[in-house]
Predict the structure.
Amino acid sequence: MTEVSSLTGRLLVATPALADPNFDRAVVLLLDHDEEGSLGVVLNRPTPVGVGDILESWGGLAGDPGVVFQGGPVSLDSALGLAVIPGDEGPLGWRRVHGAIGLVDLETPPELLARALGSLRIFAGYAGWGPGQLENELTEGAWYVVESEPGDVSSPRPERLWRAVLRRQRSELAMVATYPDDPSLN
């Protein structure tokens, strides 16, 4: 088996050719990527459900929009919390994933994290790939892999994130941001 270079902390940006409706124009932050598979959350799928409606104690700490995001098609009945915490040390109940981005243990009392939080977002479900599955999709051209920025997790305009991430690339990927929603209408 070949060694897998970790893409943890990077973004998967769906190419216009990706046919899976679960990932149409999706921006996925990879939380874990190794030889056993990959796990991430879709950053740009807000739901109409308020965080306070399902996790009352965390509702006041969630950034705008204060709704639950659909993190992916797997385990929609589970919740993941992602927070940006500046600095070198994170508080109890937070585990660094990449840079200032980390996972929140939603069993931790929110008041232990409240002072340290730069932003918080709650996700229902996640995106998952078995061993080699993501690598196959990358070879097929389904995803662009780009660097993440802490602001991607807390974008107040998630519906614009796909275009914004592509636009900031210093390559021909910036041109992909102008790809029409429905090319057949051109």
About this structure: The chain has five helices and ten strands. The mean pLDDT is 91. The CA atoms of residues 96 and 109 lie 18 Å apart.
